[in-house]
């Protein structure tokens, strides 16, 4: 399946999780330390949590 491009020319979904700049790619969201790359932490009001393993980081 070919990736669809949005109005800005970026592939949909990629710009949601990664920041593309020049020769580098940087993750916009925190990555789960237990699950590793590709599994992001959901951002809630007072915490960040992993939907896969349940890991939670509380914000101060």
From TrEMBL:
Pfam families, per database record: Ribosomal_S27 (PF01599)
The record's free-text note on cofactor binding: Binds 1 zinc ion per subunit.
Keywords of this entry: Metal-binding, Ribonucleoprotein, Ribosomal protein, Zinc, Zinc-finger
SUPFAM superfamilies: Zn-binding ribosomal proteins (SSF57829)
Keyword Zinc-finger attached: yes
InterPro entries: Ribosomal_eS31, Ribosomal_eS31_arc, Ribosomal_zn-bd
GO biological process: translation
Any GO CC annotation of this UniProt entry: ribonucleoprotein complex
HAMAP family for this protein: Ribosomal_eS31 (MF_00777)
Subunit structure: Part of the 30S ribosomal subunit.
Protein name: Small ribosomal subunit protein eS31
Source organism of the structure: Methanothrix soehngenii
